[in-house]
Amino acid sequence: MERVLSIVQIMITVLVIALILIQNRGSGAGAIFGSGGGPVHTKRGAEKWMHYATIGLIVVFALIGVASLLIQN
């Protein structure tokens, strides 16, 4: 069971990384230091779906981590 949870966590990690990289708008290195002040807009369509999917996958990742700790003890 622990092995299955570990494999699922790895798959979720890859999905979260992919979703985060897809959401990157190419704002450049200037945004890291605070000079990327573009207009603020609301998320719509696929962008909104990817945002919620990322949050959901992170929550599932955390829950699986807690479950694997409980199973070990």
TrEMBL record:
Residue spans crossing the bilayer: 49-71
UniProt-listed InterPro entries: SecG
Keyword terms: Cell membrane, Membrane, Protein transport, Translocation, Transmembrane, Transmembrane helix, Transport
Cellular location(s): Cell membrane; Membrane
Cellular component per GO, a single term: plasma membrane
Record carries keyword Cell inner membrane: no
Matches recorded under NCBIfam families: secG
Similarity comment: Belongs to the SecG family.
Role noted for this protein: Involved in protein export. Participates in an early event of protein translocation.
Protein name, entry field: Protein-export membrane protein SecG
